[in-house]
Amino acid sequence: MISTLSKKHSFDTVFDSQKVFRLLLEAMSNPARVVNINEYAGKLYGDYPALLAIAMTILDNEVSFNTCGNHVLSDEIASLTLSRKEYIESADFIFVSDSGDIKTAIESAKCGSLSDPHKGATIIILDDGVPSCRLKLSGPGIDGFAAITATQTAMDAIILRNAQNYEYPQGIDLVVISSSGKLFALPRTTRMEVTA
Questions:
Q1: According to the model, what pLDDT value does residue 139 have?
Q2: Among 41, 142, 178, 179, which one is most buried in terms of CB atoms within 10 A?
Q3: pTM, two decimal places
C-alpha cells in the first residue's frame, strides 16, 4: 500500500498533511480568508487532487465520508485514507465534486445536536466557477463584518444551508475549494448577506 502510494503520489502523509491542516484551520478560524493548498494538492494525481489533499488531511479510520455517488473519488479516498464510506445522512465529511449534488448534500447532511453540535457534517465543495457575488459575512472569527467575492455556486450553497433553519448552535460547516487549490471556509456559525 505504501509503495503504491509513493509511486502514484508524492504527497507526504505527515508533512504535507500538516501544512494543509494548518491552512484549513486558518480558513476555518477566519471565515472569508482565502488560502491556497495548490503546492500540496499538486503532489496528487487523478481528477480531484485538491479534494484528495483535503481528504488525506482530515480523514482517517475513525471518521466516515460520502462522495454523492462519485465512485471514482470514493474509491480513491477510501484507499488513501482508510476512512469508511457511509450513507450521506450519516457521513462526517461529504465531498461534492458536481454542483448538481449540493442541494442533496446540504439537505441530507447531519447537523449535530444541541448537546453535540460539533457532530454536524462538513461539506467540501469543488467549485471552479468565476467569483461574481459579493458576500458580507459576520460571526465568530470575524471582527464586525468581512467581505468576500464568491461564485454563484458557493452563494447558492450558503443560501441552501441558511434555509435549513438549524437551531443554534447546530449546523454544517462548508469548505469551498477550486481545482487550483484556493479555498475558503464557512463554519456553521457564520452568517451571510448578499451585497450589491
A1: 82
A2: 41
A3: 0.91
